[in-house]
Structures are given as C-alpha cells and as structure tokens.
Specification:
Blueprint lengths: L3 E7 L2 H11 L2 E9 L7 E12 L2 E8 L6 E3 L12 E5 L3 H12 L5 E13 L2 E16 L2
Parallel strand pairs: 1-8
Antiparallel strand pairs: 1-2, 2-6, 3-4, 3-5, 3-7, 4-6, 7-8
Length: about 140
C-alpha cells in the first residue's frame, strides 16, 4: 500500500532557468499528500527518496533528520504535513523540460515512481524501512 498519494512541486521558473544553465540541477520544494496504511500512529524522523520518471532516475529528497517529526494517526488519509521538502531534480535537460512541459498544461501532471528509506517510530520502536510507491502523481504548485 502506498504512503505518498500526490506531490505538489513548487518551482520558481526564473531561478530554475538560471540554475539549470549554471549547474544542470534544479533545487525546488515539494508539498505532499500522504496516507498512513497502518493501524498504528507513525512519527517520521528522516526521509531519503529517489524519484524515477519513465524508468530513469530524475531526482531525490535527502533529509537525514527532520527538525520536527511528522506525526500521522492510524489509517490517516489525505494528510498534508506543513513541511516543504527540498527536492533536487537532476536529469538531462530534455527530460526536465518534458516533465515541466507536461505539468504546465492546464490540469497537467506526470507520474513518478519513488524508492524510499523512511525512519519512523511506531509505538516505542524506531525503524528504518525501505518502501516503494509507484505511479505517484506530481503536479505543479506555482
């Protein structure tokens, strides 16, 4: 069962054009909508995520320690934590432009696969767990 339902990518087009020209990577922020598929509450302490678009790695989120853990109730759905996650997009320029172009059309979105390593507490135990979510919708949030 998936944890991430939807990602809203917050971009700054002018800054991105400059950054892409200079470094080849884009550094933006993302908001997420998530679900806790378990019957216990979860507190997330760290996050390590790789994004794949059309089978190719295109970026990541690396948060070795969240300043405030993200808490989710058992079976909580459509949860949007008040956290802007730092996203690095690093793919060939043509791939990045295709992704952005598909998201810029009215109602546009893309779908990515996510490979995750999550550090969380369930009850009194802390776990680090690999997890995969497939076909997660990504939309722009300008």
């Amino acid at each position: 069962s998936g944890i991430f339902e939807r990602v809203f990518l917050r971009i700054n087009p002018a800054a991105n054009a400059w950054e892409l020209a200079r470094h080849g990577d884009l550094h933006d922020e993302a908001l997420v909508i998530a679900t806790n598929p378990l019957n216990v509450s979860l507190s997330f302490y760290a996050m390590d995520v790789d994004f794949f678009y059309e089978g190719k790695w295109v970026g990541d989120v690396r948060i070795p320690s969240l300043p405030t853990p993200i808490w989710m109730a058992p079976y909580e759905a459509n949860f949007m934590p008040d956290v802007r996650f730092p996203v690095r997009l690093s793919a060939p320029t043509g791939t990045l432009f295709t992704m952005l172009e598909r998201m810029l059309v009215p109602g546009g979105s893309i779908y990515v696969d996510m490979q995750l390593n999550l550090t969380f507490a369930a009850g009194n135990q802390i776990y680090s767990m690999p997890h995969s979510d497939y076909g997660v919708e990504v939309k722009l949030h300008l």
